[in-house]
Amino acid sequence: MKTLETRTDVSSPIAVETETRPGSERTLLSRLRAPRRPRIWFEVLLIAISYWTYSLIRNAVPEQKAAALANADWIWSVERTLGIAVEKSVNHTVDSVTWLIVGMNYYYATLHFVVTIGVLVWIYRFHPGRYAATRMVLFATTGVALVGYYCYPLAPPRLMNGQDFIDTVLVHHTWGSMASGNLKQMSNQYAAMPSMHIGWSLWCGLTIFAVASAPWARILGLLYPTATLVVIVATANHFWLDAVGGMLCLAFGYTVSRSWYGSFAHRLPRHPEHAGPHPATELLNRVRVRTRA
């Protein structure tokens, strides 16, 4: 019995050592996929450059006014056929309550960015192991939306001809949209499909619902995209079907992230295991060593 115990004690470190070796000799692809603790300077730089690139490409898409208006007429016709063309009723009803529509204008202009950045910071701070996968969902969603803007120019309801939609930003003199008033030259007015207000808000809501532990936070997470849907319709910035386009883009984003990391973000460990230096960091270090030599 003592001999067996001794053998067991001796063999354990060897087993651990054997299990460790394959981890250190993983393929480059598996090492790239391994979740790592994010670095704040890199994330701020990445997000800034990515959003700048997104805005540049989105606004560089030719404003095909005739095609955008024709597509808006077609969307409106399809919604009437389906019996869901209630955007005008919602727009006029909410516009009759000044404080409500003004609040929605500012909601449209600000929370789209504030909440999205807030969720990114929250995941970065408290769930670093899930951060990269969560961020990839957002990036892939936004990237595929650019394809939609280029392939399917669409005018928002407020720019349609002869449909009597109210541009609530112009009427109430608020700055609820960069595509209205004096700021309209800074943004592509005919990039309404898909709606990234829905794509981003639903990403925020699902992330909060999947990761948060407090019931009230999970409820608020689901209410946020719901409120956003009402806002984009009430302000005549989007059709219902634009929201469907945003949801499809988000589904694509989740598919890309899951394919890369092998799991949905909320199922990954909250804190990443030590995966060694990033391959890109190793490459830079080698270049530095060779340069010094």
Describe the structure.
There is one protein chain. This protein is an all-alpha fold. It is built from 12 helices and no strands. Pfam families: PAP2_3 (PF14378). The chain crosses the membrane at residues 40-57, 106-124, 136-155, 190-212, 219-237.
pLDDT averaged over residues: 82
- With helices defined by DSSP (H or I, 4 residues minimum), what is the helix count? 12
Beta content comes to under 5%
Q: Gap between N and C termini, in Å?
A: 57 Å
The count of strands amounts to 0
Work out the helicity level: over 70%
| Main sheet: strands, sense, barrel | none
Q: What letter string, H or E per element, gives the SSE order?
A: HHHHHHHHHHHH
Shape: globular
Strand and helix map with partners:
Layout: H1 2-24, H2 28-33, H3 40-60, H4 65-82, H5 87-95, H6 98-126, H7 128-151, H8 168-172, H9 196-211, H10 215-234, H11 240-261, H12 279-292
Helix pairs in contact: 3-7, 6-7, 6-9, 6-10, 7-9, 7-11, 9-10, 9-11
